[in-house]
């Protein structure tokens, strides 16, 4: 595969600093921060969150522990099963993907684009190891892939999801993202996913629906939508959501 000519290098995402000790609920600073987050997600769908509560040492320890998990025997890993989509050990699926790639032993470095992903839930919060150039975000106009290059080793990337997009009646943009592997160094990422409660019907709040902003989507069940997108990897952008439940 080849890197798209439309990929821009580099891009620094909008950064929001959450490290202030005065950032507490029901304060002016809290309200100001909430408005800033909302405005940023409306325009970009993601941002870099600066937060000093998780040290670089802690992040390093997490990724070192993950290495131990990856080195467990295969029979131990495949015993981690789940009836839920995208849960449990997925190593065999990854191996099947790798087998379709041909990489010469003489090549010292390479770049491969992995599958494009969307965020279906409310929010995703990601942290990466020191391979910082892998993640890319698709712009709102759908024309460009831009590098999500963090400005600090201790920062996180926050990405808005389709469920939040529906909940706010299209008020935030849920961007596609992808990973491009470069070189020979392993890339690791850890994610925190804000999921709807099982059985919850996602519907736009009445306060964001009026004559000027009519309801854009039908109420939908998150798990059902998840399965809809899982059946076809092409159903991984905002058009899939519109196909599934737009009015």
Give an overview of the whole structure:
By secondary structure, the chain is of the alpha+beta class. Helix content is 28%, strand content 19%. The two termini are 37 Å apart. Keywords: Iron, Metal-binding. GO terms for molecular function: metal ion binding. Residues 13-93 form the Non-haem dioxygenase N-terminal domain. It holds the Pfam family DIOX_N.
From the structure above, extract its key features.
about 250 residues, alpha+beta, Jelly Rolls, five-stranded mixed β-sheet, disordered N terminus
Summarize the structure.
The protein is an alpha+beta fold and 247 residues long. The chain has seven helices and twelve strands. The chain has one domain (7-245): B-lactam Antibiotic, Isopenicillin N Synthase, Chain (Jelly Rolls, Sandwich).
Could you give the topology of this structure?
Elements (H helix, E strand, L loop, with lengths): L6 E2 L6 E3 L10 H16 L2 E5 L5 H15 L3 H5 L12 H9 L11 E3 L9 E6 L6 E4 L6 E3 L8 E5 L1 H6 L9 E6 L6 E6 L6 E2 L17 E2 H9 L7 H8 L2
Parallel strand pairs: 1-7, 2-3
Antiparallel strand pairs: 3-8, 4-9, 5-8, 5-10, 6-7, 6-9, 11-12
InterPro entries: DIOX_N, IPNS-like_FE2OG_OXY, IPNS-like_sf, Iron_ascorbate_oxido_reductase
Pfam families: 2OG-FeII_Oxy, DIOX_N
Keywords: Iron, Metal-binding
């Amino acid at each position: 595969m080849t890197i798209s000519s439309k990929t821009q290098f580099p891009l620094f995402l909008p950064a929001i600093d959450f490290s202030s000790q005065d950032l507490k609920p029901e304060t002016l600073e809290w309200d100001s921060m909430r408005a800033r987050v909302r405005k940023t997600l409306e325009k970009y769908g993601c941002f870099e969150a600066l937060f000093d509560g998780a040290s670089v040492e802690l992040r390093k320890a997490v990724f070192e522990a993950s290495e131990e998990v990856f080195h467990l025997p295969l029979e131990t890993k495949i015993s981690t099963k789940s009836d839920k989509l995208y849960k449990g050990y997925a190593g065999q699926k990854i191996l099947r993907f790798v087998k379709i790639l041909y990489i010469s032993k003489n090549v010292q470095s390479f770049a491969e684009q992995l599958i494009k992903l969307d965020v279906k839930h409310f929010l995703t919060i990601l942290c990466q190891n020191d391979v910082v150039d892998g993640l890319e975000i698709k712009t709102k106009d759908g024309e460009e892939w831009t590098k999500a290059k963090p400005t600090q080793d201790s920062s996180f990337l926050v990405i808005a999801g389709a469920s939040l997009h529906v909940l706010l009646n299209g008020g935030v943009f849920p961007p596609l993202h992808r990973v491009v592997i470069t070189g020979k160094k392993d890339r690791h990422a850890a994610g925190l996913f804000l999921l709807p409660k099982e059985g919850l019907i996602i519907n736009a709040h009445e306060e964001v629906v009026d004559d000027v902003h009519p309801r854009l989507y039908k109420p939908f069940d998150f798990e059902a939508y998840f399965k809809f997108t899982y059946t076809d990897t092409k159903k991984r952008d905002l058009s899939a959501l519109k196909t599934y439940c737009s009015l």
